[in-house]
Amino acid sequence: MKVLIVSDTHRKNDNYFTVLEQEKPDMVIHCGDAEGSEYALTSAADCPVHIVLGNNDYFSDLPKELELEIGPYRAWVTHGHNYYVSMSSEHIKREARARDMDIVIYGHTHKPAVERSRGLYAVNPGSLSYPRQEGRRPSYITMELGRKNELSFRIKYL
Fold first, then answer.
1. CA proximity to 76, closest of 46, 48, 97, 55
2. CATH tag for 2-157 (out of 3.60.21.10, 3.40.640.10, 3.40.50.150, 3.30.70.20)
3. C-beta separation of 157 from 141 below 8 A
4. For residue range 16-74, what is the model confidence (pLDDT) as tens digits?
5. Which of 26, 31, 61, 85 has minimal Cβ neighbours within 10 Å of its Cβ?
């Protein structure tokens, strides 16, 4: 199973449509700041699309957070701004452990990261529209679940 993880598209969706066509995922997780593009993002995909509320998603009825089961793994999806991710990932990882999660997936920083510590994956796809990491290349993550439920994450760039 392939999961496409994106965030912070901010209504600039061309890169999302390109990545969707390239990757052909079985599921999409969007970590917020779609800014009213929920219908376009969802209808373009031939798979389930899960989107959470970001700090710029005004007047939206998106959920603030989601808990998903992906194979045997428990994943918590949130934009991250309520967990001080701009300062560090420690608070959000502590909360994920308290919730007994295997994976926390978040956005907000516009900087991609995959961390693993003490059995928890902390995953941030960066931004497909307004990257902030060195080099400023639009980024996303693919998560693959193998036949024996082994997980792999890859940060990818356009």
1. 97
2. 3.60.21.10
3. no
4. 999 999 999 999 999 999 999 999 999 999 999 999 999 999 999 999 999 999 999 99
5. 61
Is residue 60 exposed (0-12), middle (13-18) or buried (19+ Cβ within 10 Å)? Answer: middle
Q: List 51's β-bridge partners, or say none.
A: 30
- pLDDT at residue 134, rounded to an integer: 93
Task: Label each residue of the chain as H, E or C.
Answer: CEEEEECCCCCCCHHHHHHHHHHCCCEEEECCCCCCCHHHHHHCCCCCEEECCCCCCCCCCCCCEEEEEECCEEEEEECCHHHCCCCCCHHHHHHHHHCCCCEEECCCCCCEEEEEECCEEEEEECCCCCCCCCCCCCEEEEEEECCCCCEEEEEEEC
Cα dihedral 97, 102, 108, 112 sign: positive
Delimit the domains of the chain by residue range.
2-157
